[in-house]
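Incident log, support desk, overnight shift.

02:14 A customer reports that sequence design results differ from what the structure should imply. Their input is reproduced verbatim below. On-call engineer (initials T.W.) acknowledged and began investigating.
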């Protein structure tokens, strides 16, 4: 008989005791069976660390107990969401739509005259004040304000944006998301 088969036989001989101990800890037969299975897998994986001649049953009970408490600690950090309410609030809009929108915006931005593109990038994307942008461009503050206004209007025309409702998810996605929150 090989070392492995002897270990295997001794391991299997402890299953009824392990299961009884697991049921006493978990207070649930299914969870107890999972604990015993996890214990056997870990014991088999770590059998080279078991010292022959020592108490196998005590070693296995220690593994089972440690596994039980590890699972308990893990469950404390988990939130039960059996009805899906928490998951529904975590929904996000598909990234591909944002990617397409960004591509469209870049194309539209390229269509602007250089002075308008420069002004809107300085104000809108770089965060400069109108005064700072005017100083960078070497023109009056009113000129920068005019360029930004014309650039915004032109971008709206190119992108066919008529109001705030054109931003964010489309009407169908918004309706689905809002329905999930109401339920």
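02:41 Re-run completed on a clean worker. Output:
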């Amino acid at each position: 008989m090989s070392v492995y088969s002897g270990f295997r036989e001794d391991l299997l001989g402890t299953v009824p005791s392990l299961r009884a101990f697991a049921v006493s800890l978990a207070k649930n037969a299914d969870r107890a069976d999972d604990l015993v299975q996890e214990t056997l897998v870990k014991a088999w994986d770590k059998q080279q660390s078991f010292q022959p001649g020592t108490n196998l049953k005590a070693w296995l009970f220690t593994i089972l107990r440690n596994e039980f408490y590890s699972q308990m600690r893990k469950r404390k950090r988990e939130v039960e969401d059996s009805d899906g309410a928490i998951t529904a609030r975590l929904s996000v809009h598909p990234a591909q739509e944002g990617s397409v929108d960004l591509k469209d915006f870049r194309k539209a931005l390229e269509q602007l005259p250089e002075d308008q593109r420069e002004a809107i990038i300085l104000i809108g994307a770089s965060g400069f004040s109108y005064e700072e942008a005017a100083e960078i461009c070497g023109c009056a503050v009113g000129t920068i304000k005019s360029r930004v206004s014309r650039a915004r209007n032109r971008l709206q025309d190119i992108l066919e944006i008529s109001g705030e409702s054109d931003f964010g998810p489309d009407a169908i996605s918004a309706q689905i998301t809002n329905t999930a929150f109401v339920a």
